[in-house]
Write a structure and sequence with these properties.
- The structure holds two protein chains of two kinds.
- Helix content of chain A is about 45%, strand content about 15%.
- By secondary structure, chain A is of the alpha/beta class.
- Chain A folds into three domains: about 1-40; about 40-245, P-loop containing nucleotide triphosphate hydrolases (Rossmann fold), CATH 3.40.50; about 260-310, no CATH class.
- Chain A has a seven-stranded parallel beta sheet, sandwiched between helices.
- In chain A, helix 2 packs antiparallel against helix 5 and helix 9 crosses helix 11.
- The longest helix of chain A has 30 residues, at about 250-280.
- Chain A is globular, with a radius of gyration of 22 Å.
- In chain A, about 40% of the residues are buried.
- The model of chain A has no long low-confidence stretch (mean pLDDT about 90).
- By secondary structure, chain B is of the alpha/beta class.
- Chain B has one domain (about 5-130): Cobalamin-binding domain (Rossmann fold), CATH 3.40.50.280.
- Helix content of chain B is about 40%, strand content about 20%.
- A five-stranded parallel beta sheet of chain B has the order 2-1-3-4-5, with helices on both faces.
- The two termini of chain B are about 20 Å apart.
- The mean pLDDT of chain B is about 95.
- The chains are: A alpha/beta, B alpha/beta.
- The interface between A and B is medium-sized, with 33 and 35 residues.
- Strand 3 of chain A pairs parallel with strand 2 of chain B, so a sheet runs across the interface.
Chain lengths: ~325, ~130
């Protein structure tokens, strides 16, 4: 309880601590998140993804500096992959954001994916909430994305930015990648490199093939290391937010997400209750062994488990 | 199901361009299952302490080969105290003369890992020393 109050009073250590508790699945975190919940829902959540080396961290650094000129408070969650073998991780996104370390209006947190697929950590959603309650106007989630698996970022962000760079491959790569659909804004970073025209042409061709909704994703060029094109990117992000609000899309997105979140928590809690009541660890393993021996199929096993629970309550 | 993972900040304070040792230690700790945040070169003590707070690390590893450790290391310790973050355990590494170690320890540095320290010794230290908060 105390930690949530400290966060609401602006204590940065408490913010950092609660994010760790969420990452470590500490049961005490649930209560704190409950206290913070009424204070969330205000931040604009921006997802930034793209292949390794496209310049995402540098782009985030410059974008944040540009938002600081508007007196915005910014939270950054930088997700890097954890090793699937040891669970360890090197989290190095801050190297490109050194200037922001001591900015009072910026809070940066690095997270390892900890075995969670989809490019994000299981705790990312809760970390976003914590920064939201802490009073951040914008929360940027940065994650590596190069293929099918990174679409998850779009289910957390209001505005998703796909960062590309010239010379990564031909348009077949763009079709293969399959993450074209999630981009609200496309950025060609390192646009001073050879091949930027071609990359833009290919992106444009792909976008024309896809269903044009009310929002046409802009394709912007940046050279993040020189801060070129950053203001245009910031304006593009703000235009997207205006569109989300005026079209009612923001409310729809938020409703969908809250529904999914609730259902997933409900599912988790129900299975926890049922397991606690009718299935201790050894019984669970015995059941798994029977499924393995093909004595019972997993659907029937689950139904039996639920039946036993409801008969014994 | 609580699963505590050790988080370590590896930092290069001051004007020192040699980060091979820091990167080797970072890699070794990663392979031992820890989450390692690497700051990059040329960090001020202020940047290091603020990063350590935001990242909620259990350990800070300071690497210095420039000879400025007697200024930079105690400065990090001072800032940790000022920010109410003395619970974070600070270790040091690099080219640090034997005679400087007692005064560094007095300033609050827990241990100095000099050149040639086996990586397993560093890993074990991080696994066996527990931060109290």
């Amino acid at each position: 309880m105390e930690i949530a109050d400290r966060i609401l009073k602006g204590d940065r250590r408490a913010v950092a601590r609660l994010i760790s508790m969420v990452e470590d699945s500490d049961p005490l975190a649930v209560e704190a998140l409950g206290i913070l919940h009424p204070h969330t829902g205000k931040a604009h959540i921006i997802g930034i993804t793209g292949p390794p080396g496209a310049g995402k961290s540098t782009l985030v650094d410059r974008l944040v500096k540009s938002y600081l000129l508007l007196n915005k408070r910014i939270g950054i969650i930088a997700v890097d992959p954890s090793s699937p073998f040891t669970g360890g991780a090197i989290l190095g996104d801050r190297i490109r954001m050194s200037d922001l370390n001591t900015e009072p209006n910026v809070f940066i947190r690095s997270m390892g994916t900890r075995g969670h697929l989809g490019g994000l950590s299981r705790a990312t959603g809760d970390a976003v909430k914590i920064l939201d309650a802490f009073g951040m106007d914008k929360i940027i989630i940065e994650t590596v994305g190069a293929g099918q698996s990174e679409v998850e970022i779009a289910s957390h962000a209001h505005t998703t930015i796909l960062v590309e760079m010239p010379g990564l491959g031909d348009d077949i790569q763009t079709i293969k990648a399959g993450i074209m659909e999630i981009g609200d804004i496309f950025v060609i970073n390192k646009a001073d490199r050879q091949g930027a025209d071609r990359t833009e042409m290919e992106l444009r061709a792909m976008l024309e093939l896809s269903d044009a909704g009310e929002w046409t994703p802009p394709i912007l060029r940046t050279i993040a290391s020189n801060s070129d094109g950053i203001v245009a990117l910031r304006d593009g992000i703000e235009s997207h937010l205006v569109y989300l609000k005026s079209s009612g899309k923001l409310d729809i997105l938020n409703h969908q997400r809250t529904r999914e979140e609730f259902l997933s928590i409900l599912g988790g809690e129900i299975s926890k209750i049922i397991l606690d009541k009718v299935m201790d660890g050894s019984k669970l393993d015995a059941l798994v062994a029977r499924i393995l021996k093909r004595e019972i199929d997993p659907y029937k096993a689950a139904c039996d488990c639920i039946r036993e629970f409801s008969e014994n309550r | 199901m609580s699963e505590r993972r050790i988080r370590v900040l590896i930092a290069k304070p001051g004007l020192d361009g040699h980060d091979r040792g820091a990167k080797i230690v970072a890699r070794a700790l990663r392979d031992a299952g820890m989450e390692v945040i690497y700051t990059g070169l040329h960090q001020t003590p202020e940047q290091i302490v603020e990063t350590a707070i935001q990242e909620d690390v259990d350990f800070i590893g300071l690497s210095c080969l420039s000879g400025a450790h007697m200024t930079l290391f105690p400065r990090v310790m001072d800032l940790l105290r000022k920010n109410d973050a003395s619970d974070i355990i600070v270790t040091g590494g690099g080219i640090i003369p034997e005679e400087d170690i007692p005064s560094l320890k007095e300033s609050g540095i827990s241990v100095i890992f000099g050149p040639g320290t086996p990586l397993d010794e560093i890993i074990d230290y991080h696994k066996n020393t527990i931060r109290k908060h």
